[in-house]
Model the fold of this input.
Amino acid sequence: MKKFKAIALSTALVLALTACGAPAATETASTAAASSAVGTEAAAETAESAGTALDKEAFDSFIAEGPVADDAEIEANSWAKAIKERGTFRVGTTRTSQLFSQLDETDNGIRGFDAGLFQLLTRYILGDESKFETTQVDSSTRESVLTSGQVDAVFATYSITDERKKLISFAGPYYRSQQAILVKADNGDITGVDSLAGKVVATQSGSTGPDILAEAAPEATVQEFETDIEARTALEQGRVDAYVTDYTLLLNALVKDSSKFKIAGDTFGTEDDYGIGMPLDSDGVEFVNSFLKKIEEDGTWEKLWKISIGDRTGIETAPEAPVIE
Done:
C-alpha cells in the first residue's frame, strides 16, 4: 500500500504535547456497512486529511501480531465469554478522530490509537482482529449505547468522571489528557487561558470542556457544539475566537492543516484520565484491565502510540502509560 509522509510539527508544538484525546462523531454504522453509511462529517474529515494518513500497512501488520487470550481466561469471565460465543465484539467509537479513530474510505479501515486498542482486544478475545462491528458515538451518546446494551464497550477518548461512574463502569485508564486552546494561525490576542476573558470560546457539549472553562475562564462566553468539526468550522469562519478541548483533538487539526490553526499557550486544567467505557458493574472491567496491563508491559501500547501518533506528529518519545487501577 502506498505510504504517506507524516507532517512534522514545529518544535514548540512538540514540546507542548502533554496529553491527548476527545470524541467526535454523529451516526451509527457496522463495519460491514461502513462504505455505504459514511456521513457528511466523516467525508469532510477525510477530505481534510488527504496526505496525512498513517502508515496503513505498518498499522495493520502490527495489529495482526497482537496477543490472543487462552480459552481458560475467557471462560472465567462472563463478559468476554459472551463476546466469544457471539463471535463479534460490538464497539462504540468515533470515525473522525484523526489520530485516535479515523475511517479510511479507500478501504473502510478504521485506524488510530483507540481503533488499534479495540482491534487488539478483538483479536485477544476472538483470535481475529476483524471480528468487530462499530456504533458511531459522540460525547452525548456514549453512556446511552452502554446502558441500552447496544455495545460491549466504548473506545472514544472517554474521560473518567464520578458522574459517569453512576451510569457505567470504566476499564483503565489507558491515556491521560489536559485541555488546550486552538486559535487561527494569525491570532495574536489569545496567548493562553488568562486571555480568554471577554472572548467567545467554542467547546464540545457533553465533554469536560464546559466545566473546565467555567472554572478556568469564567469571563469567557462559551458556545457548545456537538462535534469537533462543527467547533473548528465556527473558529475558521470567525464565529468564535477560540476552541478549547482536549489537546490531541486539537493536535488532529494541526496535523490536517497547520497553516490554518495554532495552539495558544500551554495546556491547562486538571489531568483527565481516559478509560474504556463498560456496562455498569461488568466483570469485563477486570478482563480488560488485565489486557491493558499485558500490552503495556510487553511494549505493545508504546508501539501502537508510535504508529498512530508519534510517527505522524514528529514526536519521538511516547508518554508514560497511566497506571491501571
About this structure: The chain has two domains: 11-176+273-313, 178-270. Residues 1-51 have pLDDT under 50 and may be disordered. The first strand starts at residue 89 and ends at 93.
